[in-house]
Write a structure and sequence with these properties.
By secondary structure, the protein is of the alpha/beta class. The chain has 7 helices and 11 strands. A 9-stranded mixed sheet has the order 5-4-6-7-3-8-9-10-11, with helices on both faces. The chain has a two-stranded antiparallel ribbon with strand order 1-2. The radius of gyration is 17 Å and the shape is globular.
């Protein structure tokens, strides 16, 4: 029987909307356009998993360490103690101050650095920016093998992507190997912009899944499920 990883937080009902938790030793793919809520959803998952005793490696292509800490604090996802206790390893693609040109060898370095993979959960946010759109079939196969090796080590993966930033072939591959596939985007409802999670696939769910979950992002609160939407 598949074990579910508890993502329960008292402040929201996301866990109940998504069947009670994420399957352990699986791939969760969060896909959507920029600004749709991919990162905040992966941050919500990461924080809940830390709260329930798991260790997390969070790899970010969009934030440096200071930005990440501030972002999490603004959502009342307090992660300083987890970082100090090495339960949370944050790896920015950019240095501590400012931004630099993309390092083409970053993905290769990432794959070879075993220290990164000592934790239970590995979050790639946003994975689209770690690869190039014209990646070869060989590169795609190597990436899939890389993910399968991590699953073989008992890891649970959360991957966020913007499908417009990668090849159609790789997008199809990532969809096919994912156990959970969530599409996230902003939509207008009654003149108000609301984030929506569309549950495209959810294998091994522990309970009923809501196929569509509207939510808002509130400073000091985090994710708030939009019941009336």
């Amino acid at each position: 029987m598949v074990k579910l990883l508890d993502i329960r937080l008292e402040r929201d009902e996301l866990h109940s909307k998504l069947g009670g938790g994420l399957p352990e030793n699986s791939i969760t793919l969060i896909e959507g356009p920029d600004g749709g809520g991919k990162s905040v959803l992966s941050q919500r998952f990461a924080y809940a998993l830390l709260e329930h005793g798991h260790s997390v490696t969070y790899i970010s292509t969009e934030m440096n360490t200071v930005d990440f800490v501030k972002q999490m604090a603004s959502l009342e996802y307090n992660i300083i103690s987890y970082m100090l206790d090495e339960k949370l390893l944050f790896i920015p693609m950019f240095p501590f101050f400012g931004y630099v040109e993309f390092d083409e060898n970053f993905m290769n370095k990432l794959i070879k650095d075993s220290y990164i993979y000592k934790n239970d959960i590995i979050v790639f946010d946003t994975f689209s920016y770690l690869i190039v759109k014209d990646a070869t079939r060989k590169t795609n196969i190597e990436l899939v093998d890389f993910f399968k090796r991590l699953l073989g080590m008992g890891k649970t993966l959360i991957i966020t992507i913007n499908k417009d930033m990668i090849s159609e072939e790789l997008f199809k591959i990532l969809k096919s190997i994912s156990d959970v596939y969530l599409h996230v985007e902003l939509r207008e409802r009654y003149g108000v912009l609301v984030n929506f999670i569309d549950v495209i696939r959810f294998k091994m769910a522990g309970d009923t899944i809501d196929k569509q979950v509207p939510f808002r992002v509130e400073p000091g609160v985090g994710i708030s499920i939009e019941i009336t939407a």
